[in-house]
């Protein structure tokens, strides 16, 4: 009974029905305590601005996970605790808890005495800074090398979860410290208050934490309700815009799309990393200062459901635009109207409204967002006329981007803009045969864009075109994104029967420490277990 209630509560929270989710999870928790149920209820409380209750649930989940010695759930609970403290404006405490989450992901002892909460100056202000965290951040990647790769295959799923969790915690550390550094010296948000890594939480008072009516719209959701009609200060002013930014930032983090570009004097190549798309699933339109990518009905661009509008720094020739829709990305080849290097791909403030993340990027800060949105002339959140966030957060986010994007786009000089459908894609049309389609999708971008300068070299292979260096690798390698399991599945799926036999024989005989794709080598060879350096192979009865 408790499990069914909890499952229903989790689904309700995912659907944005927070009041229903809280009620079902509360009933389930009366029968049995479970860290995951507390974490889900904490999430629901947080999204209905019931911060004390959200913090209580996060700390309860942490305590139970600690008592059960479940390291992964402990890390998840510390991160949930950090996010809640961030929402409460306790930025120093948020960084400390996020730091503890990263230490758990790194394999540190659960009761490690790291003294993070004691890093304060004479005034009691926390002394850790965002730049210090950036400088000390190490890349989180899968092990490399044939032995390491094969060993990682057997535990790819769990390892990938740890990587994602650690990277999330690191991201929240940077956000918390960035916000903290904007506070005045001596502000309470700069002072650590958490002193216990695994507290014994006490049930908070529900005063001021009554569950929200699911039919009402929160002040920072952008809609009107009977609770806010007579309270203009709740939907205007800096605090209101910062609350809006918190929701915006959460949705951006969930739905952002990775993007990269390179250029020469006359052209740009833009890679937008989206998987499992094809020509019939997207429509691409080119204008002098913008590229619009619209998904077909029922198709999502990654986790983002809206259209992508890339607002460019300078003008291009729309009729010369070409594109490739590959298995891992959309590749755009753009011809500049005027020759010369651009200082950046996008126009000012485009990073706020296009949902694209050009690496390296930490996203948009609250100050940048608030200054931008108030400069557009909005005085009150209700003027945005957004959908109910709690009912459909994705629709709310898409509507917000579209509203802000229209102000940016319409405020630019578009007198010479004439919308042009791209009619000469660099990929095959559906009428082409499969064989010709495979050849067409493999056409390198270098053949589609104008020539770029090459430089003197002593290499026997001749001069290198450094502007097209990214093309040489073909489609993005899934193994570089930490998804080793998918990488090997793809190799096995596309292999012939001999290769499959070789992979299976070598992997099974070596207990996952070797992987061969040559049947000529594998058929007469017996593979021994060869664990990576520092790892000991054990036999289990």
Automatic annotation (TrEMBL):
GO MF terms, alphabetically ordered: protein-folding chaperone binding
Top-level taxon of origin: Eukaryota
Family the entry assigns: Belongs to the SGT1 family.
Compositionally biased intervals (Low complexity): 449-459
Residue ranges of domain CS in the record: 254-346
Region (Disordered): 133-155, 190-235, 413-487, 509-541
Phylogenetic placement of the source organism: Eukaryota, Fungi, Dikarya, Ascomycota, Pezizomycotina
Entry-linked Pfam families: CS (PF04969), SGS (PF05002)
The protein's name in its UniProt record: CS domain-containing protein
Natural source organism: Xylaria flabelliformis
Domain SGS: 454-541
Composition-biased stretches (Polar residues): 224-235, 413-423, 509-521
